[in-house]
Specification:
By secondary structure, the protein is an alpha/beta fold. It has a single domain, classed as Rossmann fold (3-Layer(aba) Sandwich). Helix content is 37%, strand content 21%. The chain is built from six helices and seven strands; from the N terminus they run βαβαβααβαβββα. The strands form two sheets. A five-stranded parallel beta sheet has the order 2-1-3-4-5, sandwiched between helices. α1 (15-28) runs parallel beside α6. The radius of gyration is 16 Å and the shape is globular. The structure holds flavin mononucleotide. Residues 9, 11, 14-17, 84-88, 120-124, 150 line the site of flavin mononucleotide.
């Protein structure tokens, strides 16, 4: 299968990267896959300028690293979005990437895929679930979520993700299940 992983976090090997790693390990139990990683914080991705040139059907006119994302996104069977909650939503760098996908909103790019949302959060993640359910329903795709609370309300401190092994297992099992059931 073709898998792309969009690493939304500003830091490497943090909570959401760890969830993604366990998800990919689960997928690997059924065989090898083509995996492409994109890390928007380290890429050159300009903001959408709403010029509407893409309405001509010729893609985005901005020539930057998104030009590598477009074909990989189109060909992906599984799109993994690993993002911490930042002010109640995905991180700004991941949002900038999704704004630029406006240039290719059609079933060729969004239909018949498994969208996997891996979230790290302290207190709230509902807006992300609502977002993903809405876009996948519109596109006829499948959506899956693992949300890990990386904060302990009892002590009021952040909690390293390896202290919630049940969420890492959930990510692993989700990867295994998607790899097993996909055609
Ligand atoms: C700038 C900033 C804003 C945040 N905003 C929220 C938020 O609105 N809601 C929430 O539940 N957690 C929020 N958090 C907590 C992170 O989502 C959480 O620590 C996450 O597990 C970090 O994942 P990472 O290690 O992959 O970056 C915020 C963290 C930072 C640094």
């Amino acid at each position: 299968m073709n898998i792309i992983v969009l690493h939304g976090s500003a830091r490497r090997n943090g909570d959401t990267d760890t969830l993604a790693e366990h998800f990919l390990r689960g997928m690997a139990t059924t065989g090898s896959h083509e995996i492409t990683h994109f890390t928007p914080i380290d890429m050159s991705i300009a903001h959408c300028r709403a010029c509407m040139e893409c309405m001509k059907g010729t893609g985005c006119v901005i020539q930057d690293d998104m030009q590598n994302v477009y074909p990989a996104f189109r060909d992906a069977d599984v799109v993994v979005m690993a993002t911490p909650m930042f002010w109640g939503y995905m991180t700004s760098q991941l949002k900038t990437l999704f704004d630029r996908l406006e240039a290719v909103v059609c079933s060729t790019y969004f239909g018949n895929k498994d969208f996997v949302l891996l979230i790290g959060y302290r207190s709230y993640y509902g807006s992300m679930i609502e977002w993903l359910e809405r876009i996948t329903k519109f596109a006829g795709s499948r959506c899956h979520t693992v949300a890990c609370q990386t904060f302990d309300p009892a002590t009021g401190t952040d909690r390293p993700i390896n202290q919630t092994p049940e969420r890492l297992t959930e990510a692993f099992e989700l990867g295994r299940r998607i790899a097993e059931v996909s055609p």
